[in-house]
Amino acid sequence: MGIPVEVPGLSTILPELGEGRLIIVESGADPAKSFFVRRLSLTALHHGWPVTSVTSRDRDELIRLLAREGSVEPWPEGALDVVEQYALDNLDAYGGRGGLLAVDSFSFLTLDLEGSKVARMLRELRARCHEKGTTAVLATDRGMLEPRAETVAAHLADGVIQFHAKEGPEGLIRYLRIPKWDDGRFVDRNIYYEFDGRRMAVDLRSRVL
């Protein structure tokens, strides 16, 4: 069983992130991506799965955010492991607990790595996730990864979810795209969503051109 995607509307077409899968979540300078990753973390915790979160930001700040946005806290002892890092050249230590591995700012943490080193890291992580049943979600900032590394990451991932925003006649229009999924269901479809900083919801009735 994978990690449920408990986002209204989105869960209709994407009910879960499969066990042992490697998923890239990408956006520009937009908080929706990090919010989505935190929602996945909270869902995993509420269902009793361990969560390992690797962040380039302040560890205590992330724990406070999860506690404020979650409805169950404190979590069982050892369920949540938050690791503050400034750079990564491997993820060997983090993919073996099962449950969810969430790496926010993966592109920032690997900023100085060449494409070949990112490829090796992701191949090793994929193998470990498949072995241990860990679902890995790597959040990246669009354009921050070196182009070759960005291509490698998308190639090795089982799925890619992209959050987009653009100005329209009535203000900001938000939509997500799933250009790659292991069963090929969502390629090249713009999916409208709303986000106010506290809640995210997908509206499948709206079209974004």
Number of strands: 11
Can you summarize the main beta sheet?
9 strands, mixed
Uncertain ranges: none
Instruction: Provide a count of the helices.
Output: 6
Quick check: average pLDDT?
Answer: 89
How do the strands line up in the largest sheet? Answer: 5-4-6-7-3-8-9-10-11
The multimeric state of the shown protein is: single chain
For the record, the CATH class is: Alpha Beta
How many domains comprise the coordinates? 1
* Ends distance: 34 Å
The CATH topology annotation reads as Rossmann fold
Overall geometry: globular
Outline:
The chain is α/β, with parallel strands linked by helices and 209 residues long. The protein is built from 6 helices and 11 strands. The strands form 2 sheets. The protein has a 9-stranded mixed sheet with strand order 5-4-6-7-3-8-9-10-11, with helices on both faces.
Q: How would you describe what is shown here?
A:
It is built from six helices and eleven strands. The chain is α/β, with parallel strands linked by helices and 209 residues long. The protein has one domain (3-202): P-loop containing nucleotide triphosphate hydrolases (Rossmann fold, 3-Layer(aba) Sandwich). The mean pLDDT is 89.
How would you summarize the topology of this molecule?
Layout: E1 3-4, H1 10-13, E2 16-17, E3 22-27, H2 32-46, E4 51-55, H3 59-69, E5 80-84, E6 100-103, H4 106-109, H5 115-132, E7 135-141, H6 147-156, E8 159-168, E9 171-180, E10 190-195, E11 200-202
Parallel strand pairs: 3-7, 3-8, 4-5, 4-6, 6-7
Antiparallel strand pairs: 1-2, 8-9, 9-10, 10-11
